[in-house]
Design goal:
The chain is mainly alpha-helical and 155 residues long. The protein is built from four helices and three strands. The chain has a three-stranded antiparallel β-sheet with strand order 1-2-3.
């Protein structure tokens, strides 16, 4: 509880209950109880609103700072992500080969089984393809045979 003060000199007031008034100890002036209590309540209420307003402003400021921090963190992550993906074409090819190799070794049996099943189901087509491929490669095969022959002759 707070002590009532005189509106003029801000000295403490004493409550006279039988008159329902406050009396200033310094000036001996009487003030109506309702007037003093209403005035004190308005002052108290104004202080509380000021405190609440400051707390709200502080909370809003904190939220803005948090949003700004989150935005900066997102921007940093995006920049890091962009830096991370700037690979040369050779590095990209190398990486792809590694991933393909890993994938193949993990799923090799399935792939071989699929090929085997396809050949069994499409035997005629497979034989046709083999024949065409052999004819295409015939010239290359002959050249390689000649090279090997002449290499043996040199030795």
């Amino acid at each position: 509880m707070f002590m009532a003060r005189c509106p003029k000199c801000l000295y403490f007031l004493v409550l006279l209950e039988h008159k329902s008034k406050y009396k200033c100890s310094k000036r001996s002036r009487l003030w109506p109880k309702v007037y003093v209590e209403n005035r004190d309540f308005r002052i108290y209420n104004q202080r509380q609103r000021d405190i609440d307003r400051e707390a709200l402003e502080l909370e809003i400021k904190q939220q803005k700072e948090d949003r700004l921090k989150k935005r900066l963190e997102r921007q940093k992550r995006l920049i890091e992500r962009k830096k991370r993906f700037k690979l040369t074409e050779e590095e990209i090819k190398q990486r792809k080969r590694e991933y393909d190799r890993k994938y193949y070794y993990q799923h090799r049996e399935e792939k071989l089984l699929q090929k085997k099943l396809w050949r069994q189901n499409n035997n005629k087509h497979y034989r046709e393809w083999k024949k065409q491929h052999r004819l295409k490669q015939l010239e290359k095969i002959r050249q390689q045979d000649r090279i090997q022959f002449w290499r043996k002759q040199e030795i």
